[in-house]
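thread: overnight batch results

M.L. [08:02]
morning all. the overnight job finished for the chain we discussed friday. pasting input first so we're all looking at the same thing
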Amino acid sequence: MVVDDTNAQAATTATADPLLAGTSNGAEPSGQHFDVVVIGGGPGGYGAALYGASAGLNVALVEMDKIGGTCLHRGCIPAKELLETASIVRTVKHAAEFGVIVEPKTVDWSITLARKQEVINKLAGGVVMLLKNRKVTMFNGLGSLGPDKQVHIVGLDGEQADISGDAVILAPGSVPRVIPGFEPDGTIVVTSDEFFHLSQIPRRAVVIGGGAIGCEFASTLADLGSSVTILEALPKVLPGCDDDVTRVVLQSFKKKGITVRAGVAVTGHTPNPVGGTTVQFGDGESIDTDVVVVSVGRVPYSGGLLDAGTLVQVSDRGHLEVDSLCRTDEPSVWAIGDAIASPQLAHVAFAEGILAIKDILGESPTPIDYGKVPWAIYCHPEVAFAGHSEATAKAAGYEVVVSKHRFAGNSRAQILGETDGLVKIIAEQRADGTAGTVLGVHMVGPWVTEQLSGGYLAVNWQATVDEVAELIQPHPSLSELFGESMLALTGRSLHG
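M.L. [08:03]
and the structure it wrote out:
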């Protein structure tokens, strides 16, 4: 969404606003009562506020930093902006293959960072505008839940207020997990919070953690010219992905010059007098680097969230404990997003916010099936999947039939010059040996994050292979490969 500069500026300077940052009724901060009070202005929090307000509820939103949360300001959006810069670099690099001759170019990192911030400002301004237009009362401060759904707010200027609600939704978000001995300093050791403010592209980088975030950072840096090494303590990178998908990513990373070391743990690092540091890992091995990017997951942010006397329970890992409808043990209090033990994905937080509001309205919502949510990883090549992998389907006791088709034979992929990757479909095998219900769809390759919707619907609607195979895919298109893969499971195919 494109908004004017005043809205964008309002979003980026929210921390300078007084405690009552966006009230629509002119009332004094303290003593106000709302239908719903939401603590946390990230995707889950502002999503719940917008959805609740559109249903006619009087909603308050409490945010201590900037509306939009980690995803908008220090996560999803800036990461994808830098990945798009990397995509442009790849396009220029291969332009001659299309008959387009360009002079050698360099990356002006300052312009890249400025464009990243411009995109963030416009999106943040759009969210603030939506909240204001729907009459959501916004408080800029740290909110904490007390007994009887009382919310205490401490503004950044020290001003305090107490408000209350018929219902409260806790959406405090998360912070990067750190490793002892690798505390971020913003220069040599960084997490996702500091990465987007690096003053220059590092010549060498070590990425600790081979999950989705780590692979996205590694892919970006390699395309921008850095020498990159991934160190992953688990036996494989992208541990939640199907093995066939992971193999494609590893092959592509090898072509980029990314070194991947799985099954090794870091033990420390020693800063060098001339700059950079030496990372120690495994059994006495070490590597010199300019920057260490720590990408080992995130932990719930719950500091100061709960006052004495509340019944909200916190697990040993720091998650707020909820039932299948995101209800806590405190009556009329819900918790959503990264603060609970569900997939740490912005779109899952949106869904949880909607779920909580529907439950508040008494609409008997269907619980989220977390095993079937869509996953999207934006490294190059992209990864997207929903439902069971082949391994997890077999572990769950299913007899399976599998179909795999590669983008190398897809006309649109050949036109783009992006032929690495495949579509893999896992279906339940019927007693007669034919393919039945679709259990999982896994993709790796060009723009697969934009192609997953058909597979997601098939998995979540428990569609059969025969039903999906009847659907027509456009030609020539990348999504055609999904149709070909499904058609092959019927026992007949065109190009496969």
